[in-house]
Q: What sequence folds into this?
């Protein structure tokens, strides 16, 4: 089953379209530029989300002391660098919301989904370029609404990123008015952006694969983005519906979630987690795909168990729809339902385990080059194993009941979303930077950034498991109010120091990024000697991507193949009748 | 052991040991897997590092046997953990019949607790050691969560619903009672204490008049039992005018109601438990009893959550009287 669509207009690169600044850099319909736009928007949002995280950590380690560098934040948010509980609660809410919806999703799906899909399947652009542009530009007002909500009366949303009703639906309960409305509206608008992206990705992958690019010759990152797009398409409308009901409750006097008017608070939790659990996999599947892409290149070896990898992506996606109840074990769930969710959640560990073992299998017998992207991929696997194993504790109801709402959960989500998604994102940026910008990133700074982040990340986040099991709850403004947490307060200081140092190492990444953009070594077409199609294009690829239409002859991971002299065999190389390299 | 290492809170209930045992075996399992994977990762990284340009990686595309091994082993382990966890979950979910009953209402930002005999407390709970205690929870405003780390129990208090949690303390002393579910600005300060006493001391405490300085006992000097308070409320609201035992009464008789199966209009039956009683007071038309007209007005907003708990306790006491 070969796809039929033409890969690129053969003349596209020849005709030099001078579109001018606005059409090239702002309102571009080119998937590569849109990918870059998502990259820079998310990195900018990461500064805000990360800044909030550091403030939260400071408050937890040294409660109600003046937080350095924050005296500029006006009242009534901060008081001369002192953080009141209202702002702490808003910061906790907004840190999570921004990181999930404006950093991890746009980075993995918006940036790399856009940049990689057409290039890796041999297409000239997305199926709907205009829709693609719209998808980015719709996310911008969503971001402005979200960040701007800090400055409205009553401050930003403070009901937690999970927005549990009725805390989130009755303004009096948090004291937040317009901020919470903007939070809901922003996520509705952002949902529209993601839907446009999802439709585009699905259509592009189904219809625009180059001749010879069969389903089982697709790179795993494309598979994971394809499945992710399907999850987005099905999950986001559920969140949008829930947010709509929340806005009705807040602004139109309905009571969908208010028991006094016949509503049901738990309805919100069901809606939110029915969206929320697939959402977790929306954020981790692309990361898994990225790791699967980087590892064979630097192990110079075929991926271990390609088909098993594909089927585990599909089964994770399927199972993700029937595990949401494990977020609600202590909300008052009956025994039968509780055990059903328990068993499905246990089962979803299996495909994740399969993927982990297959990555190990990929290293086995390899010829491993420890370049910076490979370090991130290996770092991803190490932290993902921890995050995956700690998930089993949550699947197990009696344990979950004890650790729910404690720092154990905070540790788990950060091992999955930071150690998982963000590490993979760093791997992806360092790996595809030459293709995106035509220059290499500085490897020394890359090594410093990796080791600093990896070590201090673990110092910062691993102890959260320990204090969580010790009974330290999440979302508490001041742990020193709790007598029994006193022996643990030194952990909070320890964690905060680790996180602050890790935060400082991100400056190395920022410097490397901007330095390399302008002064990095020029990259050739295929600096990593990789097989996949994007490396056939110039770095960076011009309009229309491929200079000549490509035909695919084999799978993406034929490294160290005995058929050729070199240790890589690009997907496009035609070995029938030809002798030696054909380029 | 964990307790001494300062890693887990004191074990002070009958289930703490079981929960910790399951937890510890998960820790053991995690260590085996994570250290195993870390060791493999480190070994491969060293053994298969790049040595020379000429070296080529081996051609390994996969192995069905290995795929099966590492699918079936995790699956079997997962099912084993499931069975263990589920059996413990049964224990956690089913309060013993002889449990002492406590009513608790969460509100921003305190726990209000009521003993059956009528004594009330705020952010403090006194219970006897060695006796199962069942707490019926609800909330006046947002969702709160009843969390006693030493007992290894946690249960959300959801507005508009009753949920229950039970525990049996195994040692005397004071333990922390928290709200675990983020509930607004002062969530962090919603802190209470559970005091576990010898049964005799508990009886003394229950009957003590206005213990000095005890927050939240500022009710009447001679507190009514919860059921008796419910009875007063029942008559005060005029419930008895319709819910009579006489023929032709507008509402069904409540004397033998609690714990029975009620036939509803439309042929369904429902168990008359606490949640059903509460719902029928605040939303009488939700479940109409067969043979009666939808004439009862709602008492939503007219009775506080504590009042509702008292009414429920009163109706329960009617059925208990019939039994004895």
A:
């Amino acid at each position: 089953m070969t796809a039929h669509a033409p890969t690129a207009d053969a003349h596209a690169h020849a005709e030099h379209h001078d579109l001018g600044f606005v059409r090239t850099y702002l309102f571009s319909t080119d998937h590569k530029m849109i990918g870059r736009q998502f990259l820079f928007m998310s990195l900018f949002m990461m500064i805000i989300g990360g800044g909030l995280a550091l403030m939260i950590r400071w408050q937890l380690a040294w409660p109600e002391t003046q937080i350095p560098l924050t005296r500029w934040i006006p009242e009534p948010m901060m008081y001369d660098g002192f953080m009141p509980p209202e702002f702490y609660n808003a910061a906790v809410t907004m840190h999570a919301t921004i990181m999930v919806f404006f950093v991890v999703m746009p980075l993995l799906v918006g940036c790399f989904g856009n940049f990689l899909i057409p290039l890796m399947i041999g297409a000239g652009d997305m199926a709907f370029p205009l829709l693609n542009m719209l998808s980015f530009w719709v996310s911008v007002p969503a971001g402005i609404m979200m960040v701007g909500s800090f400055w409205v009366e009553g401050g930003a949303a403070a009901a937690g990123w999970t927005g549990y009703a009725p805390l989130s639906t009755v303004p009096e309960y948090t004291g937040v008015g317009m901020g919470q409305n903007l939070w809901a509206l922003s996520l509705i608008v952002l949902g529209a952006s993601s839907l446009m992206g999802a439709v585009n990705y699905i259509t592009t992958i189904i219809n625009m694969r180059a001749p010879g690019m069969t389903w089982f010759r697709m790179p795993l990152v494309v598979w994971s983005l394809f499945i992710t797009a399907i999850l987005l398409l099905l999950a986001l409308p559920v969140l949008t519906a829930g947010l709509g009901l929340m806005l009705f409750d807040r602004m139109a006097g309905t009571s969908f979630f208010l028991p006094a008017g016949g509503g049901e608070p738990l309805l919100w939790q069901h809606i939110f987690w029915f969206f929320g659990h697939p959402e977790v996999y929306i954020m981790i599947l692309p990361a898994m795909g990225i790791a699967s892409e980087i590892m064979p290149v630097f192990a110079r070896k075929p991926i271990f168990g390609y088909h098993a990898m594909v089927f585990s992506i599909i089964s994770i996606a399927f199972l993700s729809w029937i595990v949401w109840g494990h977020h609600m074990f202590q909300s008052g769930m009956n025994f039968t339902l509780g055990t059903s969710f328990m068993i499905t959640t246990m089962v979803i560990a299996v495909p994740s385990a399969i993927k982990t073992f297959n990555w190990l299998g990929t290293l086995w017998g390899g010829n491993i080059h420890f370049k910076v992207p490979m370090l991130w991929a290996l770092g991803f696997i190490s932290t993902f194993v921890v995050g995956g194993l700690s998930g089993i504790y949550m699947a197990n109801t009696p344990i979950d009941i004890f650790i729910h709402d404690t720092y154990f959960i905070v540790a788990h989500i950060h091992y999955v979303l930071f150690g998982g998604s963000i590490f993979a994102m760093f791997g992806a940026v360092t790996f595809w930077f030459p293709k995106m910008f035509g220059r290499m990133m500085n490897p020394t700074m890359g090594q410093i950034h990796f080791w600093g982040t990896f070590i201090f990340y673990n110092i910062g986040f691993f102890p959260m498991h320990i204090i969580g099991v010790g009974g330290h709850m999440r979302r508490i403004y001041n742990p020193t109010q709790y007598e029994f947490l006193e022996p643990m307060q030194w952990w909070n200081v320890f964690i905060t120091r680790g996180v602050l140092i890790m935060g400082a190492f991100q400056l190395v990444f920022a410097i490397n990024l901007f330095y390399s953009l302008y002064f990095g070594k020029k990259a050739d077409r295929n600096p990593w000697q990789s097989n996949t199609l994007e490396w056939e294009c110039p770095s960076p690829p011009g309009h229309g991507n491929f200079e000549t239409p490509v035909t695919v002859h084999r799978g993406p991971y034929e490294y160290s193949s005995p058929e050729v002299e070199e240790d890589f065999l690009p997907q496009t190389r035609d070995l029938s009748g030809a002798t030696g390299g054909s380029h | 052991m964990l307790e001494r290492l300062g890693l887990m809170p004191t074990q002070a209930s009958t289930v703490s040991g079981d929960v910790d045992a399951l937890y510890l075996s998960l820790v053991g399992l995690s260590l085996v897997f994570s250290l195993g994977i870390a060791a493999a990762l480190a070994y491969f990284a060293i053994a298969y590092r790049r040595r020379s340009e000429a070296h080529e990686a081996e051609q390994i595309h996969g192995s069905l046997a290995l795929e099966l091994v590492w699918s079936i082993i995790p699956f079997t382990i997962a099912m084993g953990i499931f069975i263990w966890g589920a059996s413990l979950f049964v224990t956690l979910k089913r309060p013993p019949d002889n449990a002492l009953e406590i009513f608790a209402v969460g509100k921003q930002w305190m726990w209000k607790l009521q003993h059956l005999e009528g004594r009330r407390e705020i952010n403090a709970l006194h219970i006897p050691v060695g006796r199962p205690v069942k707490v019926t929870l609800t909330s006046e405003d947002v969702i709160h969560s009843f969390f006693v780390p030493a007992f290894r129990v946690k249960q959300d208090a959801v507005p508009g619903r009753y949920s229950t949690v039970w525990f049996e303390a195994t040692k005397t002393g004071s333990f922390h009672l928290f709200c675990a579910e983020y509930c607004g600005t002062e969530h962090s300060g919603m802190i209470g204490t559970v005091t576990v006493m010898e049964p005799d001391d508990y009886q003394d405490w229950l009957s003590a008049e206005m213990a000095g300085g005890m927050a939240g006992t500022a009710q009447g000097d001679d507190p009514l039992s919860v059921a008796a308070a419910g009875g007063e409320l029942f008559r005060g609201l005029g419930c008895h005018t319709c819910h009579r035992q006489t023929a032709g009464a507008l509402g069904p008789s409540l004397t033998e109601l609690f714990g029975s199966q009620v036939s509803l209009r439309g042929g369904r039956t429902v168990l008359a438990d606490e949640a059903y009683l509460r719902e029928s007071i605040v939303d009488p038309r939700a479940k109409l009893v067969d043979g009666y007209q939808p004439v009862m007005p709602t008492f939503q907003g007219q009775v506080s959550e504590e009042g509702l708990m008292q009414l429920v306790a009163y109706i329960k006491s009617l059925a208990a009287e019939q039994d004895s």
Summary: The two ends of chain A are 27 Å apart (CA to CA). The first helix of chain A runs from residue 20 to 26. DSSP finds 16 helices and no strands in chain A.
